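Two proteins were folded this term; both appear here.
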Amino acid sequence: MFNKVLVALDRSDRSQQVFEQALGLAKFTSPNLMLLHVLSPEEDDIPDTMILSPMDYYPGWGDESMKRYMEKFELRKNAGLQMLQTFCAEANTANINAEFTQNVGSPGKVICQMAKNWNADLIVVGRRGLSGITEFLIGSVSNYVLHHAPCSVHIIHFPINSPIVETQLNQE
């Protein structure tokens, strides 16, 4: 049925549920899992642009901005890798063959490209529950993946009133 399942994860609380559902599926179909995290400005807390000053007559201003940007980016990169390693170890402990990768880019495009390159049979991805103008303005990764994926897509829906989504909305 499914030999290769790509599991798209972010660093939100929802990722645990996305992973658990993918793991549950894997226990019945015994596929190989590829856990994917995409470092992107679209993810919370990822610095999307460096703060550059038009006042370049202050020596070192650009260097300091670049240094702060890189420090924040490294923290997010390491947190993503730690999450992937934890989930991969959990899958391997359950006798599920799993590996992971962390890429940089636009999440929807990276997920679809990874699925194509890895010859995935299924993509498992969560949905934040955005709609209307919010979805239009910031986009929807799950919607992009659904319409551009080279294989089947299983979307884990988190209703807006779920405790996970409510907690995250309150934090914003």
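Next, the second protein.
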Amino acid sequence: MATVADLLSRYHPREAAEDADVSRVRELVATAEDPWHRSIPLHVTASAVVVHPESRRVLLRWHRRQRAWLQVGGHGDPGETDPLEVALREGREETGLADLVPWPDAALVHVAIVPVRASGKEPAHEHADVRFVLATAGPDAARPEKPGAPLRWLTLPEAHELAAVPNLRETLARTGNLLTRHGR
């Protein structure tokens, strides 16, 4: 089981903006009693781009609160501290894909601090999102978690076009590089 601190100790940011985000996440992990706790203004989340390597497609999910097509993922449940396990659980819950596995390995792919709008339940806050790539062998088994959260299998150019935020476009670019290096 890896913690956020473990993953970040081996991770090398690829650009200045990510370097700043990684520094903030390292500070959060070093100082917060529970960096996953939703009550703090910046807290850890884990997410993943789901891929079907054979077709080179990616799966995005409509997030009503963010009003955008995004990767799957979210908050850790109480007691969860392994970001990859959180991303896997969230991915399985949000897509219905029981066969999700880290791809091409369990490496952290991207770190991004993401602003989140206020809602009726929560004030505006930030997610310290640690991102992975997960793969499925059965893309046709994907089912939305709920009616308001549709899923779409897309080519990388289609996903890049739908991605409304630069940090997701960067995650998709990194996913595309992995598909080029490790895909079929």
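The CA atoms of residues 42 and 126 lie 5 Å apart. Residues 166-182 form the longest helix (17 residues). These notes refer to the second protein only.
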